[in-house]
Amino acid sequence: MAINPTESLASNIPFAMIDELSAMPQEKEILFTMHTIFRINEISQMLENSRLWKVQLTITNDDDAQLTGLSQYIQREIVGKGWYRTGQLLNKVDHFNQVDEFYMELLKNTLHDNDRVIGIYDQLTCVKNNQERFTEAVSYIKTSLKINRRPLPEDHPDLAAFYNNIGQVYHDMEDYSKALEFYDKSHQILEMSLPQDHPSLTTSYNDLGLVYNNIGDYSKALVFYQKAYPIFEDTLSPNHLNFVAVYSQLGEVYRSMRDYSKTLDSFEKYFQILQITVPKAHPNRAFTYSSIGDVHR
């Protein structure tokens, strides 16, 4: 491994030249602070020994634009505090066995703190769902719901998220009747506790619309997608991807109902916005081309 000392001197990362202190001064060793980040420039196989590889590294700075962008992205994706962020990161990178052990260990130390226990069960639900171990996911989230429900009435707004999450797991299992049952419970609570134009209702409308679409009840799916549309229209910019997705959903439902003029209208609106918001090579563009072509056939 070769490190360019000139680049190191230009960096604001602490380091020390320790060749005079090293047992092998000919190696010209450099001691870097913990958590120092390098950019890999090149990896090449060494000619004199094919089992060894040479890695050329460049040290990064705190003002490195790519590193800053990556850090900001991770901060958006990994929420919470302390050890919980570690668990989320393990889950994001699909280290499921490690994250499972990690959360179970956390659970042992937080048994008397209901809020933390609920949070851990929620994370375990996500892990099992990602592993497609849906029965375990349902078990964890129902345990979490049981703990949270003890001091709360059945229609408390905090329970809506639990019911929605259970519905999501059943939806992923393709058990649409169960998914509909819990999505509906969540939706009823939200309707009672929120204004009719609250953005949180759009998720509920979309979830219900998707289930009805999957079971072939297109008229009901259309009702819920149409309820979501004006809320998106009032709360999001015209080019927002969540808003744009409504056109795609409406197009799919209209196509299933064989209302091809409305199908074409929805897909064309969807495509017009995609032209502004996503790169030319984006897969959604190809999908929309195909969908519009199918309608014309």
Automatic annotation (TrEMBL):
**Keyword set for this entry?**
Repeat, TPR repeat
The TPR repeat units are at 160-193, 202-235, 244-277
InterPro entries for this protein: TPR-like_helical_dom_sf, TPR_rpt
What superkingdom does the record give? Eukaryota
Name by which UniProt lists this protein:
Kinesin light chain
Recorded source organism is Rotaria socialis
